[in-house]
Amino acid sequence: MNKEITPLGNIRISRQAIATIAYHAAQRSYGVVGLASKNIADGLAHAIVKDPTHGIDVEYKNQQINIDIYIIIEYGTRIKSVASSVAKTVQYHVEKALGLPVHEINVHVQGLRISEDE
Amino acid sequence: MTDAQPAQYSRPIDGNFFKELMNAGLTWLRTNQEAVNALNVFPVPDGDTGTNMVLTLQAAYDEMNTSSSDSVGDLSRDLAQGALMGARGNSGVILSQIWRGFANNLSGVAILDAPNLAKALAGARDTAYKGVVRPVEGTILTVIKDSAKAAELALERTKNPIEMLEMVVEEAKESVKRTPELLDVLKDAGVVDAGGKGLLHIFEGMLRYINEQPLDIALVSVKPLSVIGRHEAQSAIEPGQDYEVIVDFHPHESLNLENFYENLEEMGTSIQMGEGEGMYRMHIHVPTEKRYTPIDYIMTLGTVSQVHIENLMEQMNTREKEEGFANIKLAPIEPGQIAVIAVSPGIGFARIFASLGAAAIIEGGQTMNPSTQEILNAFENLPTSKIIILPNNKNILMAAKAAAEMSVKDVQVIPCQTIPQGIAAMLRLMPEQELDSVAKEMNIAITEIESGEITTAVRDVEIDGIKVKTGEIIALHNGKLVAASNNLQKSCSDLLKIANAQEYELITFFYGENTTKQEADKIADAMQELYPEQIVEIQLGGQPHYQFIISIE
Hints:
Chain A is of the alpha+beta class and 118 residues long. Chain A is built from 3 helices and 6 strands. In chain B, 45% of the residues lie in helices and 18% in strands.
């Protein structure tokens, strides 16, 4: 839980809220065809998820926001460029919405999607 | 089509011609690179769309150019491969997808005819749209979609791929113009989409080549106003061209640019034109005796709203007296001492930081962010392990923090977001003390100072209820827009009022590289009159873009 103290009281921003912002930013980021479950062990890594908490991990520790994003990328795009764009876009949107700095964004490329006609 | 078509219209598009066309697209994109950068507000306003597209297309072209094949199908596959390997940034990735889709539908095609071009553009559109879950309209995606549609419609009217390209360019132009209606963030910022505009430049460059129009001269391009700042072309002053003249005007009727340039070329050099919201800005260097000629000429064409004349030679002389960053004397560091690394946007600030004991100065500021590596390089070789970084700008904070983490040294980043904060922090430096306690002192110091910035708006915008028009002088208080007017003095006084300057003791105006000492003196005198209880000082800051950076303490 992210907490800020104002003269009137506290403002709390849940991890879920931050994850939702990150989820939307990531989805609109070019090259990303889906968010993936972070848990590879359960065999669902390639199942594209709809619930933001499954593809995004938000950690709030020592006054710092750290975000982990698990994504699936379109096959045939330059993965490095797509991943760094995602990190940049998510950072920008989260910082803009919250007014708080994001300390770290880790992008995990969980898989590639190959479109049918290739 | 037209009565006299250039010979290239009937030339079949074989491998060689295809290469020439791509080279033309690349050249024209590069010519307009800065203009595209200036438009970049989406998805992240970091001003690199033009650069990323140029680098991506350059890599693509280089890959294709090494191929000896004369088949358009083979070459476009190489092009796509090169684009994939060289894709830089968001717009570069989309561009690489566009070429991939383009190539997909051309396999086995030796000569590019109209039906194949339409098919290739349709493939480009399909592949581009596949690369994202939620396509955002009003971007380069929309422009490739509209271009593909235009090619399809053109098929009913022509069998000539070049006439088809003409229609595609026509529609792409309109499509770019429509982007602000589809994407609010563009509308709010008063710009069209940067990536879409970049794609248009590629297509347009091919057509310009066919029509034998110049590709590498920015003269003929009309840039958005934000790009043509004052003092733009100072680096290239030719002897005899002593005066810089800038005229803002509204033409009475639509401007015949070619005639206009021809007439201007008779008067001087370094001609640049900017356009925005129906207003034009003309920039030219002329000899002394002709300094009023462009103004008289433009007055016959429209209503002049603003004129700016400057003696460049005079300015060069004062500039040469000031030495570069390299000649600044930095504080020597003994092992075990604290070394401060400061980021400075201008020569004046660099000197101030050096005089206060900075061990290294990195050049950087609002539009010129040093990389993590540059920051790291600045202190890795210093003979001490105690480092403090003063980023002095919020855009540089992240890179500074990253450098701190990468280093094996003990590094503290002070989150100062403005130069006055950085100077306030610098004043607390005790090189022999413990790193943590000095950093703590600095962190307190930066909260005790008010910072102000005065600059000229580069585009129309509305933020926090304050409406700003291009060219107005805007005031920022601690990074937040608080006032706008068309008068430098008024913006300064508004700022001091909002910052509660009467509650403080010292007001320092650091004037920028584009502001003269005389102008600064005048403002300082006026402010001293308004605040007789406070001490008002002026200092050379040397920063670009900002007339003044102001500290109130």
